[in-house]
């Protein structure tokens, strides 16, 4: 499998893992994608247009990944804030009861 094919396959797998929110798989695919891009840069391919299209598609997937991960992170922050506020409220309640 060529480096360009590996990038395409990894990109498709990243899309699927992103839809499933499978962060463990995404982490492994990210490493595989980095390896494939490094291999592509070392070997080089005469198909500049195909390489450009595939890298642009990969960039779009990473933009989506960052957007979704940021949203997930914010959800966790909001949840932790709510938990902290609830604990504080419970402490105050117990002080006055």
Q: Main attributes?
A:
single chain; 97 residues; mainly alpha; 3 helices
Structural description of this entry:
With 97 residues, this protein is an all-alpha fold. The chain has one domain (3-71). It is built from three helices and no strands. It is rod-shaped.
Question: What's the gist of this structure?
Answer:
This protein has 97 residues and is mainly α. It has helices at residues 3-20, 23-43, 48-95. It has one domain (3-71).
Contiguous low-pLDDT stretches (5 residues minimum) are none
Give the overall average pLDDT.
90
Any idea what the shape is? Answer: rod-shaped
Compute the CA-based radius of gyration: 21 Å
Distance between the termini: 70 Å
Largest sheet properties: none
Strand composition percent: under 5%
Q: Write down the domain tally.
A: 1
Please tally the β strands and state the result: 0
DSSP summary: helix tally: 3
Percent of residues in helices: over 70%
Structural class: mainly alpha
Q: Output the helix-strand order.
A: HHH
SSE layout and pairings?
Blueprint: H1 3-20, H2 23-43, H3 48-95
Helix pairs in contact: 1-2, 1-3
């Amino acid at each position: 499998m060529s480096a360009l094919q590996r990038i395409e396959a990894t990109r498709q797998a990243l899309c699927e893992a992103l839809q499933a929110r499978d962060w463990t798989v995404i982490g492994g695919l990210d490493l595989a994608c980095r390896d494939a891009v490094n291999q592509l840069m070392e070997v080089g391919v005469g198909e500049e247009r195909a390489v450009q299209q595939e890298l642009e598609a990969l960039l779009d997937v990473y933009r989506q990944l960052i957007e979704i991960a940021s949203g997930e992170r914010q959800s966790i922050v909001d949840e932790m804030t709510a938990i902290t506020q609830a604990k504080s409220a419970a402490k105050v309640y117990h002080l006055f009861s």
